[in-house]
Design brief:
single chain, 295 residues, mainly alpha, MetI-like fold, 12 helices, 71% helix, transport, Aliphatic sulfonates transport permease protein SsuC, transmembrane
Length: 295
């Protein structure tokens, strides 16, 4: 018979004890700072500036290779034409005319989009109406409605406002309605518990929660309206004898002042960049990012 094994042989091995002294603050190794180049490239504005400089250099190089100012003026010639247009006041006056019409059409489009989406989230008929109208008119280019606008409103501001409202209304309505649909049901129930309904429920509950989608729709609507306005002015020229940037570009193209054409295009791009970064980025920073709705 086998002898019973001692009970101590079944015990697990014991790790040896040891003491570890806590690290003192002076013992902490400081993290090495990032190189200057990496710190600079972490700045978004610097990266965008470098991209712009590369594009300008490519433009100037292409102009020098082509060596024909009638087809492609260089950056220096375009800058000179731009400065002359600003100093003479002509470019500023054309810009003011375009922006005046643009802001009116844009605000009308925003108003109609808000009313349509508010009706869509409140009633089934409104939802069906929004779905049908956006399916019909959103794929339709705004400039394609210009002949009809000229027939209805004549050669003037009314035609421009008509096509601008069409350009803004549908993308903004779609983005806003999508944002409303994504609002959590708990927030909707909170609003109903407080007795909110109709327009008050939309403005106090749905709009703040759907603000990122609404802001995206405002950006898209602005871009659509801006390019629609320039295209419309290029088609029928001056409005009531006083044209905007599109007319400025069209007129100088007819007179073969290509440097002024590029100056007008540069003004269109500059205004687009200013509105994008100074208006929409600021609005996003003081609303959705500050409130934690978007990171």
């Amino acid at each position: 018979m086998s002898t019973p094994t001692s009970s101590t042989s079944w015990l697990p091995p014991v790790r040896p004890e040891y003491e570890r002294s806590p690290e003192l603050p002076g013992d902490v190794v400081a993290e090495a700072p990032l190189p200057v180049a990496r710190r600079l490239m972490a700045q978004s504005w610097l990266r965008k500036t470098l991209i712009a400089l590369v594009l300008l250099a490519a433009w100037e190089l292409a102009a020098r290779v082509l060596n024909n100012d009638l087809l492609l003026p260089g950056f220096g010639a375009t800058l000179n034409a731009f400065v002359q247009g600003v100093l003479s006041g002509e470019l500023l006056q054309k810009t003011a005319v375009s922006l005046s019409v643009l802001l009116r059409g844009y605000l009308l489009g925003v108003l109609f989009a808000f009313l349509l989406t508010s009706l869509a989230v409140s009633t089934r008929i409104g939802r069906d109406l929004l779905s049908m109208l956006t399916a019909m008119f959103n794929p339709l280019p705004s400039i394609a409605l210009l002949p009809l606008a000229l027939l209805w409103f004549g050669l003037g501001t009314g035609s421009l406002l008509f096509v601008l409202v069409h350009a803004v209304l549908w993308p903004l309505a779609l983005n806003t309605y999508s944002g409303f649909q994504a609002v959590p049901e708990t927030l909707r129930m909170t609003g109903r518990n407080y007795g909110l309904s109709g327009l008050r429920h939309v403005t106090l509950i749905l709009v703040p929660a759907a603000l990122p989608s609404i802001l995206a729709g405002l950006r898209v609507g602005w871009a659509f309206a801006w390019r629609t306005l320039i295209a419309a002015e290029l088609v029928f020229g001056a409005s009531s004898g006083n044209g905007g940037l599109g007319w400025y570009i069209f007129q100088n193209r007819n007179e073969l002042y290509t440097d002024r054409v590029f100056a007008g295009l540069a003004a269109v791009i500059a205004i687009g960049l200013l509105v994008e970064h100074l208006v929409f980025d600021t609005l996003e920073r003081v609303t959705v990012r500050r409130w934690g709705v978007q990171h």
